[in-house]
Each structure stands twice: as structure tokens, then as C-alpha cells.
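dumping this here before i forget
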Amino acid sequence: MIACIAVCTTEAQTDSLPSTVYHIKQLAVQKDSSRNRIQIMDGATPYLTNLEVHITILEPGMSAHPPHTHAATEELIIVKEGLLKVTIAGKSKTIGPGGVAMAMAGDEHGAVNTGKEKAVYYLLKYTTGKPPDNESAAKAGGSVIVDWKDVAVNKTDRGARRQQYNRSTSLFEKFDMHATTLDKDRDSHLPHTHREEEIILVKKGTIKMHIGDVFYDAAPGDLVFLNAFVAHALINTTDGQCEYFAFQWR
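structure:
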């Protein structure tokens, strides 16, 4: 409880993005010539000078913009629907639903819908305000593109876990990206806190999210943002398994 009060005070002092659930169906769709876009969040956190998250919807053959670079910003793509050909630093791979791609700061990157249907993906773009450590990022493995079907499934006592990424990046000491499958009526863990900020993205099924002393329902496509040291937990409320991504950084 003390930790939660401390973080809530910090959020108020810094105008930080709040720990909450973003319900995608309640957000407006913005249209332009190359894509449709749903803006989810855009602001600062105690760890990040800016965190911007949106959904991009591309028609077949379209891209959101030409290949480009960011000197001090990383980007993370998570495919929701369709097929997306992602190119980072000259390496290309087509990924489908559940596929992820992370571009380190300074790496040229781009994406195009190579399927016959719409491609829908989440884009997380963030900066820390500090110079990127590209040398350490390269030693750790650098940018990555991985399809859902290529990630090993590790069984757990609650369901299963897929580990997409767990190492340093150009901006972070550690970035952990994994997907959890929870069996019916199972919880992820008891309410707990940690020093990492976190995003949870519901892929399949419904969950009840416990943040501080408030409970939220979340459905497929909904996104949860959690500030550091905020108590949280979730439970599967689906009549079957649920799946969600978890991204943590420090």
C-alpha cells in the first residue's frame, strides 16, 4: 500500500500516464490516405520521456510510411491481424497474428501489408531521454523479428509461456517480452509489485485486471499500462484459456 501511494504521488507530480486499462472499442478510428489509426496513449512515465502507443490498420499492399530511422527511439510492433512484412536493418520477415518486431534506435525499419486482407498491428514507440547504447544492444542480439509460431511453448502449472525477448536493448538495461496462456479460472499470480513498468496486451479471451484497489474487465485487443511499484494481478474470466502479452522494462 505504501508503494502504491508513493507511485500515485509521483504520477501526479510528473503528469505521468496513469496505471489503467485502455478499452480499444471505446477509442476513435482516425483515417488518412495510407492507413487507419487508433490512438491509445501518448505521454511520459517516470522511466520514459515519451511512450506512444497506437494501432495501425493497413489495406493490402500498403505501408504506413517509407523505411525510416529514429536516432534515440525504439519501436515495437505486435501483429493483431493479417500478414505484415517487416524489414529492420536490411533483414526482412513476414509475421502473422502474435508476431512481434523490435527495432533498436538507429536501425532503419519499415513494414508493408503483404497479405490479401487488412493488416492490423500495435506500435509502441518510446524514448528515455538518454543516449542509446547501440554497442551493448548489438552484443545482446540487436533488433528482432519473430513470428508467433516460431516461439517455443513452455508448459507451466497455470498454462504456458512463450518468451519472445529478454535482454538489454539500445535504451534499456533489460526488456522482457513474453506471452502467457492461462487455463480457465487461473490467476497470473498474487497481487504484487515490481520496479519495472509494464504493458499487458490481451490477445485472446477475457480477464479481470486488479490494479491497486480497483478491478477492471479487459477483452481481446485491450491494453493495460502499469507504472512501477503499482500492485497488480489478473485472473482469466474466459470459459477456456486466455492469452496475453506482457512487456516489462527498466
